[in-house]
Amino acid sequence: MKFSILADSLNKMELTAKRLELTQYLVELFGNTPQDVVSKIVYLLQGKIRPDFEGIELGVAEKLAMKAIAKSSGNTIKKIEEEYRKRGDLGQAATKILEKKTQTTFLVENITVERVYETLFKIAKLEGTRSQDMKIKYISSLLNDATPLEASYILKILLGTLRLGVAENTVMDALAIAYTGSKENRKALEHAYNVSSDLGKVAETIASKGLKGVEEFEITLFNPIRPMLADRVKSEEESIEKMGIEFAAEYKLDGERVQLHVEGEKVALFSRSLENISKYYPDIIEKIPKALLADQAILEAEAVAINENTGEFLPFQELMHRRRKYKIEKAVLQYPITVNFFDVLYYNGKSCLEIEYRQRRKLLEKIVKEDDFAKHVPMTIVKTENDIEDFLENSINSGCEGLMLKMLDKPYQAGSRGKYWLKLKREYRNELGDSLDLIVIGAFFGKGRRTGRYGTLLLASYDEDTDTFTSICKVGTGFTDEKLDQLYQILSDKVTIKRNPRIDSEMEADVWFEPELVIEVVASEITLSPIHKAARDVIRKDAGLALRFPKFTGKIRVEKFVEDASTNEEVVTLYKLQKKVAHDKSLM
Ligand code: ATP
What we know:
Layout: H1 3-14, H2 19-31, H3 38-45, H4 62-73, H5 77-87, H6 90-102, H7 113-125, H8 131-145, H9 148-159, H10 168-180, H11 186-196, H12 199-215, E1 229-233, H13 236-243, E2 247-252, E3 256-263, E4 266-270, H14 282-291, E5 296-305, H15 316-320, H16 328-334, E6 337-347, E7 350-351, H17 357-367, E8 374-376, E9 379-382, H18 385-397, E10 402-406, E11 417-425, E12 436-445, E13 454-463, E14 468-475, H19 481-492, E15 495-496, E16 503-504, E17 511-513, E18 518-522, E19 525-529, E20 544-548, E21 551-556, H20 568-587
Parallel strand pairs: 1-11, 6-8, 14-16
Antiparallel strand pairs: 2-9, 2-10, 3-4, 3-5, 5-6, 6-7, 10-11, 12-13, 12-17, 12-18, 13-14, 15-17, 18-21, 19-20
This protein binds adenosine-5'-triphosphate.
Adenosine-5'-triphosphate is lined by residues 229-230, 250-253, 257, 272, 302, 342, 377, 404, 423.
């Protein structure tokens, strides 16, 4: 398939944010795509080459891409930097530079999607000392044969700056229309995606085997299942209103969610955001097969740091010490854990997703033999507000965050946040009632004690409709010296010369970051703001929402995608809720 077909589509898609138009362009694109290239197209559309959980990252830095452009165009790096500064996008800068070159030379090759994909794949796999030179060689050989427009998209994919605003749902809509003639069939695709986390594989299946193939899609061991998530409730009373007369309550442990895939001695672990995290937990890999009465299983558990002497649960931050590149064995000894199982999704060749909670829990208790390391999450059946209150009290006393409430007769809804699971956290840690997970988009340099580090961070919420990160507050409190250092280290890798186009902020920061890091904050209230962009125009024209007195809680949410951060819809709900509480109080 000619790469120019894809480049033309990408070009059209970049110019619109309308979902219907995007879908239409995608349908046309799939119409022009041979069956065996569909999966590649789907990955490339998302700026990837394989599903996230395989951990294959392109990881090409701007500097390296500039060297490749220099090599292909015969220009100096300085000239390319100049053009880049002018245009704010390296892809566009390359287009401009290469246009000049194509006026003087003839293109002999027609590059194909397959060739671009294979080359990107090779680049991602390169390691070792000579890898930088090889990368430059591969990239410039593609750029040599590409038209300026093609070159610009190759670079955007390589640098991770392709921003089409096509959500997974839009791709699924288009696949359903292109291959079955009706958007109605998206449900089947969604199911397949939820159990495989691999949109490319889903696309390949619908293209080659049609709807029936997708409907028969099955869980595959070592392909993570998208996790089921919970809605929030604020009180015992509300819990009963929503859950009915009898339901399960489990401790909500404050650790890391782990999806374990086990077949005999072979074990793989996936995080909440489906990253393969096996390397951080060699103790789980070693010990869990012995605790299981199953040949094959996919299980969910919360890994929690513990005090080895007392067995007490320790907060999430303790566990994060394990997220290090080196000396993991030492961290395993220093930060011991228990693995607390709460669900079973697959058992000896069969999916358990359709089985009701009550039966899944029974099966889980049968499969996992408890010992010092492997545990069942404490659970009880509750009926009254008092029951919930008592269990909540116990949970908090043992160092947990609150409760997870689960309907007894419901299946496991992979990939959705729904009503069958609720989370209840007791102590309202701040007047707002809950914490927010926000994206770090920029920073201001510190003074005094904070000289040489970032003194204040600029944070954003996620706008699902526009797929952008809207500024919501500056935060400068709640940082210990240790956290300041840690954040400085993490964020230094994310500094960008030009602000990422998905960032929406009127405020000018000293430095801008690639929006990749999520941190947790609490605040005293949400107010209208003429400067900040969160939920702009939703409550009042020309005003956004902002956090008042925000404070960092100390939690760096490395397990979250930026798209999992607090959304503007949630911010608006919290804003309205706080208005309602104020109104109710004034009536008392
Ligand atoms: P939060 O920010 O509250 O951790 P979240 O957005 O990560 O929430 P939610 O679905 O809202 O995800 O809350 C469920 C999370 O709570 C899970 O991702 C898991 O890590 C954790 N958890 C702790 N105990 C349990 C349990 N018993 N059952 C399910 N999840 C649990």
